[in-house]
Design brief:
Elements lengths: L20 E5 L5 H8 L3 E7 L2 H11 L3 E4 L2 H4 L14 E4 L19 E2 L8 E2 L3 H12 L3 E7 L6 H16 L2 E9 L10 E9 L28 H4 L11 H8 L8 H9 L9 E2 L15 E2 L8 H7 L13 H7 L3 H23 L1
Parallel strand pairs: 1-2, 1-4, 2-3, 4-7, 10-11
Antiparallel strand pairs: 5-6, 7-9, 8-9
Length: 358
């Protein structure tokens, strides 16, 4: 894996755009887009349902094509730009709250939902199949999809994953999947996500990783040195910004506590504030969530903007356009995760396809 850095700026990077074209679905603020660009791909456009996220994406990436509409409408278009019919990679992260460990899981299946004001409602657990249907229409060489770890947890979810794999196959793709941790890929954040990687059957002549000759081989083992919070800690920021209750619980903390609920149980006999995880200096920072509530163990405050940006491997000069950084970072694939995967796909798959054409 190339030595991609978590601490970087868009203004300091030249994107070569020599690896082929990518289109991003469920693009949010463009975390995965920045990863593809770092790896040398030309991201020609995006599809997004949230107007605020689309405005932010356009501000930071100036895409050639952008479609602000639900993917269910996007797949019904009569025609697409030529760029989209000649893609190396179709990328997407279908919204996944129905499968999140912290969510309602099966209770939310089949329900119309939206994440925030301004979005259209949609049934979240069908979006993965809409995305695969789009792949069947655009016929990119490779498809990459990311989702939460909880997608594979529970019997119902495993059945759902089986449907995903079968749908990829029916659309004409060999597909594999792997659980990856961002902390193994140069990202200062514990973030486990499952990635699906698929290649068109008519293009693949490589080895398979299973006995039934259906999972295409792709080396996605990463072992970069893990980065602790000590390395990214903003020592100049001593601003105390906890609520009165959180501040009181923080004062009662003990070494080894996982979150504010430990003190809440000891002092008040009340189970609360378990989402307010402690960030220890000598450990990899906790996952950044859209409503991040993590608390520093050594300073009475939450992560600040600089620390959130670095935890997400976002560029320091990214324009959040008035949105909370933790929301965009928490909802996005860390650029360095995508960059590592994209580089492996380019080296192990796409370059072999190009060699076969010579």
């Amino acid at each position: 894996m190339s030595d991609f850095k978590y601490d970087w700026a868009i203004s300091d990077v030249e994107f070569p755009k020599n690896k082929g074209k990518v289109f991003s679905c469920f693009s949010c603020g463009g975390g995965s887009t920045m990863g593809y660009k770092l790896a040398g791909f030309d991201v020609v456009g995006c599809n997004e349902i949230d107007p605020k996220m689309m405005d932010t994406y356009i501000k930071n990436h100036d895409p050639k094509h952008h479609f602000l509409e639900p993917i269910q409408e996007f797949i019904k278009r009569d025609e697409y730009p030529d760029d989209l019919m000649n893609l190396e990679i179709l990328d997407g992260s279908p919204p996944c709250s129905s499968f999140s460990i912290a969510g309602n899981r099966e209770k939310d299946w089949g329900k119309n939902k939206k994440f925030r004001e301004g979005q259209a409602e949609q049934v979240l657990d069908t979006l993965f199949f809409d995305f695969i249907e789009l792949a069947g229409r655009l016929r990119p060489k490779v498809v990459v999809a990311e989702n939460v770890k909880g997608l594979e947890m529970g019997d119902s979810n495993k059945t759902y994953v089986g449907r995903i794999l079968q749908s990829f196959s029916d659309a004409g793709y060999y597909v594999g999947k792997k659980l990856l941790n961002a902390s193994d890929m140069g990202v200062p954040q514990k973030r486990e996500r499952i990635f699906f990687y698929a290649i068109r059957k008519d293009l693949y002549n490589g080895p398979f990783d299973d006995l039934f000759a259906t999972e295409p081989s792709l080396d996605l083992d990463f072992d970069r040195e893990r980065i602790t919070f000590f390395e990214i800690f903003d020592r100049d920021d001593l601003t105390e910004n906890l609520s009165p209750l959180d501040g009181e619980l923080w004062e009662k903390r003990r070494a080894g506590d996982v979150d504010l609920s430990d003190a809440s149980i000891r002092e008040r006999d009340v189970l609360s504030r378990f989402n307010a995880k402690y960030i220890y200096q000598n450990k990899v920072p906790n996952t950044v969530c859209g409503s991040d509530q993590c608390v520093l163990f050594d300073v009475k405050r939450r992560r600040n903007r600089s620390e959130v940006v670095k935890c997400g491997s976002f560029p320091s000069d990214y324009d959040f356009c008035g949105n909370k950084p933790e929301y965009i970072v928490g909802m996005s694939v860390p650029p360095l995760m995508t960059a590592g995967i994209a580089e492996r796909i380019s080296d192990q798959w796409l370059s072999k396809i190009d060699e076969g054409k010579k």
